[in-house]
Amino acid sequence: MALEELLAAQGLGPRDVAALALYGRLVLEANRHFNVTGARTPEEIARHIADSLSVVPYVKEPYVDVGSGAGFPAIPVGIVTGMPLMLIEATQKKARLLELLLERLELQGVVIAERAESAGHRPELREHFATGTCRAVASAPAVAELLLPLIGLGGAAVLQRGSIDQRERSALEDASLMLGASVECEDEVGGNRRIVLLRKQRATPTRFPRRTWAQKRPLCE
Question: Model pTM?
């Protein structure tokens, strides 16, 4: 089935369907040259796009996405909301792809080709954003440590997760407190997927994110 049909079945309007389908085709084409995502078919790309759009009700600008990879969820978010994007991606090839995607899709955005552990210490980025996402495959406490230093007071880190056992949930609650936030809600969005919202209440201590251990040794695990 064509991408347009798969996306139209999600209840999207014609403009969004056309732009999201172009995005999906660009990612599939890039995947033929180097590995940017595990999605290889229109059906798989459509599922990634649908999952990306689940964060739309939670995001506000200024908005940052960490570990952007092939652009999930940030590029679909930018397409349907029109909000400017700040994309942080350490892999140079993926960062160049993101710049191409922004240009081809005529989206407002900036790509920072840098590890989030370093970007989180930049004065112009630290505690600057209202919301942030990170769809990386890492534990919830590791994602929290990468995102929360970038989130301003009153803002939120939007975590996309699958199932969370009690041990990971407790570790996330403890890590969030260390990082100046708390778990505000955990909403199921279908297909064993959920959104966990971390609300920023205090400034993150300056030692976070740790430059080398954020993902190798997640907080409180």
Answer: 0.95
